[in-house]
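Hey, can you fold this one?
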Amino acid sequence: MTERLTPNQLTITIIAEHEPTLTLVELCRACGTHPEWVIALVEEGILDPQGDRPIHWRFETTCLRRARRAQRMEQDLGLNLPGIAVALDLLDEVERLQRKLDSQM
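Sure. Predicted structure:
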């Protein structure tokens, strides 16, 4: 039986397979959000695009996952941007340690 993808999973899959990086507009469209929110994520250090100005920014596809996580933390948990930054950094560290542990087994 074929696994069905949700619209969000499908968007991530299509983008990840076809584009190595995303523009600000593409990232906003994939997240269903406004550029101001993504700019705030960049200013808080949550996302780290390549390029010197928003019009030139290019986001790695991993930023899409990070931005979506940030959205869920804001909407579901009521976290503010500094709280989201800390939570995402801690989740990154947990994932890094899990990979390290897995490689030692």
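The longest helix spans residues 81-104. Let me know if you want another pass with a different chain boundary.
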